[in-house]
Design goal:
- Residues 34-126 form the MaoC-like domain.
- One of its GO terms (molecular function) is (3R)-hydroxyacyl-[acyl-carrier-protein] dehydratase activity.
- This is MaoC_dehydratas domain-containing protein.
- The chain has 164 residues and is of the alpha+beta class.
- It has a domain at 4-13 and 78-152: Hotdog Thioesterase (Thiol Ester Dehydrase, Chain A).
- Helix content is 25%, strand content 33%.
- It is built from 6 helices and 5 strands, in the order αβαααααββββ.
- The protein has helices at 4-9, 39-49, 54-57, 59-64, 74-78, 80-88, and strands at 30-36, 93-101, 110-123, 126-137, 141-152.
- Strands 1-3-4-5-2 form a 5-stranded antiparallel beta sheet.
- The longest helix has 11 residues, at 39-49.
- The radius of gyration is 17 Å and the shape is elongated.
- The protein starts with a helix and ends in a 12-residue tail after the last strand.
- 24% of the residues are buried.
Length: 164
């Protein structure tokens, strides 16, 4: 259920809201962000994480291992999930994430990160939300999937702050 206009315009949810309406997260809601990971992103991540696997840094090594080009670190791609959630719910506390790396992501590919609220429970004036998490390339090709649990102070969505 990927809608091209949502992907290109960075709109947060499949539901449409008027700008004056309060946007509350509900079960089934989907939030998306698109990102293209550059060679500089991979280099910076390798420095911070100290993951210097040559599959990420050396195109010839990656091709010799059977890949088309340099790989983006899977954990860097998966970092889209907490970014999507925190950009809509500042103060959200990420407590768990399962990940399945299905296909490689190459430097320069457009990736769509998607989180879908699967279960929302109120607990001590906060909310515990279980999200389905997925990343796609080429529109509908699944590259990563999993689940996240997040403690949120509110279900009121803030407008997305775009910062690259």
């Amino acid at each position: 259920m990927i809608i091209k206009t949502l992907l290109s315009s960075n709109v947060a949810s499949l539901r449409s809201f008027s700008s004056s309406a309060t946007q509350l997260l509900r079960t089934g809601d989907i939030l998306r962000q698109t990102r293209i990971f550059s060679g500089d992103d991979v280099l910076e991540y390798s420095k911070v994480s100290r993951d210097t696997n040559p599959l990420h840094l050396d195109a010839e090594c990656a091709r010799n291992a059977g890949f088309d080009d340099r790989l983006v670190h899977g954990m860097l791609v998966a970092a889209l999930f907490p970014r999507i959630i925190s950009s809509h719910f500042p103060g959200a506390i990420y407590v768990s994430q399962s990940l399945h790396f299905r296909l490689p992501v190459y430097v320069g590919e457009e990736i769509v990160g998607e989180v879908q609220a699967m279960n929302v429970k109120e607990y001590k004036k906060r909310y515990i939300v279980k999200f389905s998490t997925k990343c796609f390339k080429h529109g509908e090709t699944l590259v990563i999937d999993g689940e996240a649990m997040v403690i949120m102070p509110t279900l009121v969505m803030e407008q997305m702050h775009s910062s690259g």
